[in-house]
Design a protein that fits this description.
The chain is built from 13 helices and two strands. The protein has a two-stranded antiparallel ribbon with strand order 1-2. Bound molecules: Phenylacetyl coenzyme A. Phenylacetyl coenzyme A binds next to helix 2, helix 6 and helix 9.
Length: about 325
């Protein structure tokens, strides 16, 4: 209903696999890294392009909600930190687009699919950032959820993706801390500041839980992606881990998680919590979230405005290649 109708093509039953597929699965099961020139099943390649491409798009669309506050940061120091953070996200996009390119897809193709709506980006970035406290909530919760999902991806089976993830995780961890530092300042500040911090938590809690994807029973790709070690955990496992780690952090801030059912379950050793509104999630995926149109319009505009620059870069690269070819010829 909400997926791109790209079915997870693959076989988890060894008896159905061709000898090539079986040998490939053996390499995955032995924790070997798959590299760009290695043979891989078509479905593996497609799944990686989908996931890495969506991840890359999330990084650059994810610059927009925070970019919104760069000109309105409360101090010069906060502005510098936010600017650096938003710039890091562009870098993450770059590493990920490069990783996707090693699978034979061009960056232009990926952008075309983002702009036409054929490829997704994370649902979270379709929510608005209304106050400065949202910069705290985004860093704390959104980057926090991102790390929870991405730390295991450092061990993913595809070499270029796993290696890109190492640096991304280091930076995301700094982002999460800067968000929490903003939340601490607000939550321990004036009553009005604390109220803003609480309001930001209220608005970002459930959208952050949605970042991990639909509940396991509705996750169409998890089984195959986990068999290929493209995904290391199920969506629900990571969501639970995020809740377990974040609730004590909210308690330290003196803020209330907006979930009346939230309760430590001694027997399970985990918090019981309310699921997000999945109808809302599917609506956001269909393009009907509060900021979907605005986000896509901003990305399309950036692409159109950058055309002269891309042309300049290509012309320079062509001239440099021609010069190199001429001097190689002269040297022969
Ligand atoms: N939003 O079968 P599953 C960041 C789609 S981090 C939109 O469970 P899968 C850092 C899914 O694509 C955020 N769509 O799918 C930052 C599929 O549809 P499709 C990005 C979602 O792939 C912080 C359908 O639902 N992180 O940006 C979402 O096995 C602050 C069925 O779902 C990554 O991308 C969603 N939340 O699991 C930047 C991490 N959830 O493709 C700036 C890598 C599900 O068939 C500021 N990705 N869908 O049309 C993953 O780990 C996985 O792709 C999941 C989804 C877990 C996101």
């Amino acid at each position: 209903m909400y997926a791109q109708m790209v079915k997870s093509e693959g076989k988890t039953d060894r008896a159905e696999m061709s000898p090539e597929e079986r040998a490939f699965q053996d390499r995955i099961d032995a924790n070997e890294k798959i590299e760009p020139k290695d043979w891989m099943p078509d479905g593996y390649r497609k799944t990686l392009i989908r996931q890495i491409g969506q991840h890359a798009h999330s990084e650059i669309v994810g610059q927009l909600p925070e970019g919104n506050w760069i000109t309105r940061a409360p101090t010069l120091e906060r502005k510098q930190i936010l600017l650096a953070k938003v710039q890091d996200e562009a870098g993450h996009g770059l590493y990920l687009y490069c990783a996707a390119e090693t699978l034979g897809v061009s960056r232009d193709e990926l952008f075309e699919k983002l702009h036409s709506g054929a490829m997704k980006y994370s649902s979270i970035f379709n929510y608005p950032t209304l106050t400065w406290a949202d910069m705290g909530a985004v860093g704390w919760l959104v980057d926090g959820a991102a790390i929870m999902n991405q730390v295991p991806l450092q061990r993913t089976s595809y070499g270029p993706y796993a290696r890109a993830m190492v640096r991304i995780c280091k930076e995301e961890s700094f982002h999460q801390r800067q968000g929490y530092a903003v939340m601490m300042r607000m939550a321990f500040g004036t009553p009005e500041q604390k109220e803003m911090a609480q309001d930001a938590l209220n608005r970002f809690w459930y959208p952050s839980l949605m970042m991990f994807g639909p509940s396991d029973k509705d996750s169409v790709h998890s089984a195959q992606s986990m068999a290929w070690r493209i995904k290391m955990n199920t969506n629900d496992e990571l969501r639970q881990k995020f809740v377990d780690e974040t609730v004590p952090q909210a308690e330290y801030l003196g803020l209330t998680v907006p979930d009346e059912t939230l309760k430590w379950n001694e027997e399970r050793g985990h918090y019981d919590f309310a699921e997000p509104d999945w109808e809302e999630f599917f609506e956001v995926l269909k393009g009907n979230g509060p900021c979907n149109d605005e986000r896509l319009a901003a990305r399309r505009k950036a692409w159109d405005d950058g055309e002269w620059f891309r042309e300049g870069l290509s012309a320079y690269a062509d001239k440099a290649a021609a010069r190199r070819a001429a001097s190689d010829l002269a040297a022969e």
